[in-house]
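Data deposition worksheet. Section B asks for the primary sequence of the deposited chain exactly as it was used as input, without tags or linkers unless they were present during the calculation. Section C holds the resulting structure in token form. Section D is free text for depositor observations; keep each observation to a single sentence. Incomplete worksheets are returned to the depositor.
Section A, Depositor: J.P.
Section B:
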Amino acid sequence: MQGLAVKDVEFNGAVLRAAQVEDIVYVGVRWVCQGLGLNDGKIKTERKRIQEDVVLNKGKKFLPLGTDNANSDVLCLMLDFLPLWLAKINITPTMKRENPELVDRLIEYQLKAKDVLAEAFLSKRKEEIVPAVRNNMIQIPIPEVPNYAEEFEILYAKLDDLEEQNRKLYDGMSNMAKLLLDMSSRKETQLPEIKMPVKEISEEDSWKQIVYGKAENIVCNSSFRKTASVLKHIYDYMRQNYGICWEQEAKDYKERNNLSYSPKTIEVVYQNEDLRSIFIAVLTDMEYKAKEIKEKKNEIDWSDQQILPLVKKYDDHSNGFMATYKKVYTRMEENSRVGWKNLTTRYINEHGGKPTKKDLINTRKSLQKKFVNAIKELMEG
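Section C:
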């Protein structure tokens, strides 16, 4: 592959292999998993997760990273997707018991691995470059170009906020101009002094505006009814998957800042860089998935397309073909056990909001095969 630069980068006592193709940096998934200390079974699970996840799949790429078999490509992930992938890795009680250092190592990777790898390609320091060999040819590195996508995203959000403030200021000035013209027409000799209030926005307030904006997008595109429910879901997710005790975090924050009141959880998150990074990663993932699901719901569902012949057979005019769907669900359960409860829990953890059985079928390939078989049997019967 032309224009491919490959480097081995030391991080947290391990070696991560990464590559730059044109202006984009990718990291080898296997090297990250090994650096975290995951076993072969868990590595296989994470490789499958990346390739099946609707978001992470957009950042994957197979590249020749100079492994034992130089002609084989290995699974890599775009550097901007690295924190999001790491935030999705679930730490089970067994993993905590057998490898107690894994949680700390995972957080360290999530917070710093991306920056270290980016620095390796974007800095001018001369580090050892591992040539990517393919068909006995050495790939020549290309010039390194910084990637400021994340910084620009934050900047654009702040610009949107400033634009809204300018609009309100313009409306206020227009109203004041109308008042002055009206008073002038009445030949008033003395005009009252009018002061326009100017409110400065702190970095914390600006960050909260971005957070609430993303949460509102999730509410508009999902089954969540209010932004507070979205934030609570993220807090619960972080408690369950990262072992974060919010009560202790709030207590430490209160004592550290000598506060007379109990702080809100969102304040505690903002003041802690580690918590803030995890929180934004989970929030952004939820926002993207909610939008994806909303767009799919605007189209004809996959399950509706499959069940239409059976609907016509039964001449079903019920709302949403629910009468036919119930017959199919029953046949699915007769053929094999369907773990609806476990699938519902996994859906809530991944997407938020309680799904219907139809939602589960449209998002789970394991159910779709059983669904199609049940329809065929009922059609034949």
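Section D:
The beta strands are 4-11, 14-21, 24-28, 60-63, 74-78, 133-134, 137-138.
Residues 151-165+199-297 form one domain.
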